[in-house]
Amino acid sequence: MASNPYKNLPASAFWKTGVAEESPYSIQNIYKKKFDLSGDSRIATAGSCFAQHISRKLKSNGYNVLDVEPPPPGLTNNLHQRHGFSMYSARYGNIYTVRQLLQLAQEVAGKRAPEDYVWEKNGKFFDALRPAVEPEGLDSAAEVVAHRHHHILRVTQLFKTLDVLIFTFGLTEMWVHRKSGTVYPTAPGTIAGEFDSDLHDYQNATFANIIEDFIEFQELLVSMRANRPFKTILTVSPVPLTATADGKHVLVSTTYSKAVLRSVAGELSTRYSYIDYFPSYEIVTNPRLHATSFTENLRSVRKETVDIVMQHFVQEHPAIIPASIEERSSSLHFTNHDDEAIKCEEALLEAFGS
């Protein structure tokens, strides 16, 4: 047979041997790390709902996951997540879009002051940029402002001290305050606040928008850190949209969103040596798993699937904790605390469907 560029490629390069005949529970060569994570690596986590799974698993495997806004003494474990604690490295809740992430960094750097971010519902007040962290709301708008000031101080510490950021891309669709461009994690009127089409605008970010926003975010953080660089691991959430506001079928909108986000992650990881991509999206949506990756609603990722995802991660970044093989295998499964439902504002949109 004549020579050709496909003749000596590994099994992972072909669909038949790399997917159709490969075990979806242990996919060879699907992820090869760009850089090491050491026990001293200070890791920050952020992103959409699926990122909560990643944050929990990293902690359970002994990684040095930062938490600059820990729960107050006396708050029981079962209330941590309900009040936005222990979900990520700071109490910013879910960050669904890169524009949210950029605006948070701009606020930390003193380059942006969010507008129209105090929402009211039934006499209680909420921080619109993280509306779910105080489920009952606060007693006054002034209290929201004070809480946000404290939060920004903690995020400032996080951004200046992290060595590695693990960020999960979630959505392209976003709701924006027309005058200031402030982006919210959910539409006004869902958790709190009131929607006004004269004040609020729907936007759907493009590939170019997201690339530009993420590069600006990276550059801003480096400047805040006295030009000290940091590394990034990007993932894409496999969780479909709960609802769409772009006028198309939700399946079409979900495909657009995930395609754009996956393309952005690929472009960034190809362009920069300090940005890696971990294929959690591909592992979960592998057709060899069919629909078994998700629970009956076809959105929530099963805990067993999360275990599979993180096993692939740990193969490249071995667990830090000293443990026997049996103990390490056990650590890949949820504890009782981990069995809590993932906190996801976007999922609340389901209540508005007929």
What is the compact description of this entry?
With 354 residues, the protein is α/β, with parallel strands linked by helices. It has helices at residues 15-20, 51-60, 77-80, 98-108, 141-161, 207-224, 250-271, 280-285, 303-316, 325-331; strands at 43-47, 118-121, 124-127, 164-169, 173-177, 183-184, 200-204, 231-236, 275-277. It contains ten helices and nine strands.
Description:
With 354 residues, the protein is an alpha/beta fold. It has one domain. Helix content is 34%, strand content 11%. The strands form three sheets. A four-stranded parallel sheet has the order 1-4-8-9, with helices on both faces. Strands 6-5-7 form a three-stranded antiparallel sheet. Strands 2-3 form a two-stranded antiparallel sheet. The chain is globular, with a radius of gyration of 20 Å. The termini are far apart. About 5% of the residues have low confidence.
Tally of individual helices: 10
Major pleated sheet: 4 strands, parallel
Strand order in the largest sheet? 1-4-8-9
End-to-end distance: 60 Å
The radius of gyration over CA amounts to 20 Å
